[in-house]
Specification:
410 residues, alpha+beta, Beta-Lactamase, six-stranded antiparallel beta sheet, 53% helix, disordered C terminus
Amino acid sequence: MDNARLFAAAESARESAEAAARQIQRQLERLDALRSIDVAITGSVDLRVMLAVILDQVTARLGVDAAAILLLDRHSHRLTYAAGRGFRTAGLAHTDLGPGECLAGRAALSRTTVRAPDLRREPGYTRAALVAGEDFVFYIAAPLVSKAELQGVLELYHRAPLEPDPEWLAFLDALASQSAIAIESAALFDALKRSNAELEAAYDLTLAGWSRALELRDLETQGHTERVTAATVRLARAMGFDEAALVHVRRGALLHDIGKMGIPDAILLKPGPLTEEEWAIMRRHPSYAYELLAPIPYLRPALDIPHYHHERWDGTGYPHGLKGEAIPLVARIFAVVDVWDALCSRRPYGEPWSPDAARDYLRARAGTEFDPAVVEAFLALDPPPEADWPAAAPESRNDPSRAATDSRRR
């Protein structure tokens, strides 16, 4: 008898220990689920990634067959399907609920968890047609609320009866709270991205306006900036610049002549040759560009073209007399495009050169005025450079004085 009691006590102790171990294991798993969502919040700003992590954790840790997240549209105030796990059909993807509609709408409106022990007999679930063939029985909807703001609703579905205990429900609340924070974080980041994109677009429109204002001042070069900007970006891309760098290439090309704002009209628009004193003033415009743009942090990465595009490969350029690869690559790229445009565009003081003549001009000055590798890359573009200069005249006469005149007009 004593042995029997001892055996029973030992068995009871063993079962209690096993139950405690299982409890600890569940708690560890649930803490790991919350940590996984935390990592998703801090490690990604992609809403799709966050929702995938949330749904994976919800279905695994709460032991349900399927789960869906409905997000609240701030403008229409309606709940729409955003993501799901475990569904056999795509019916729920058509969910579009107003406040109070269906069980999810009630959970959103009341901001409390709404449960249906048997979905098959639940008149409040008005989307039965959308889950036809899913064979769901148990259903529960938890509102996703962060900082008193409703973000959406988390829906759980199970194909068998389920009797959640208080611990299960408390964990659902914890998952819903973390999920709401994750969704709010992604929404805030998306809003910030949109604001930044709008601000960037406004900046770029301002830059384009500056370049058009300069061209209106000197009608002889109208359209020049638009052409050289497009061609410079195309050549820089062909030479390996990534898309982030090309943003600054474009801005630099748009602003390449911004320094001419400091050149008096009497010099800039003078119809005849410039005197040495006037040339000295004209050559200040790259320095003026630097002084104008350098104080603007947003434009510093775009400074190389306005500041250095009149430097020459052999060191005889201005304003600093830089030589070879000491000249920033983007400025060497622009210099080739700029001269090509000057030669291949129709101007009041001369007809455009033929593409072949312009090619010969660039090749002849590769290694003195221009970086030979840049000239080679430019002439190898496909489609060829002349495709972007429809004004080029195949039979134009090659007037050497035209290049000298355009060296000041650029």
